[in-house]
Amino acid sequence: MSEKVKERVYSEAEIAERLQKDLPNWRYENGWIRRKYKTHSWKSTLMVINTVGHLAEAAWHHPDITASYAWVEVKLMNHAAKGITDKDFELAKKIEDVVQWQPGKEGGALEGTPPSDQRFAYVKYD
Question: Which residues contact 53 (CB under 8 A, 6 or more apart)?
Fold first, then answer.
């Protein structure tokens, strides 16, 4: 059996620098990196929660999630390492990329939800 390598825990200054550079809509607070996503409805809130859940389970790294009718807050911290590690930054980036994805802006066959019809409103994009 091999021993598990201890993961590097980032300092508060390193966390702030990395968030500013790679995840500007995330913040560091009380030992967690956090992001609140604003949604248009409960249905959209559940879609964000399920998306985050799928990505976290696939990554085997599990966030704390708080939600209400029109928002979802995701909090990441590596419990085993007792701090913020590369796992947190990488999962945060994947969550950000998927939840903030707007296919209509890419110019391909996927047009995205109609921006002029509020019946189909989803996430309030940054």
Answer: 65
Strands 27-29 and 32-38: antiparallel
Q: Where are the beta strands (DSSP E) in 1-126?
A: 27-29, 32-38, 64-68, 71-76
For residues 82, 85, 88, 89, the Cα torsion angle rounded to the nearest 10 degrees is 150
Q: What is the pLDDT of residues 52-101, one digit of tens each?
A: 999 999 999 999 999 999 999 999 999 999 999 999 999 999 999 999 99
Nearest alpha carbon to residue 63 among 23, 24, 94: 94
Alpha carbons 101 and 118: distance in angstroms, whole number: 18
Q: Is the pTM of this model over 0.85?
A: yes
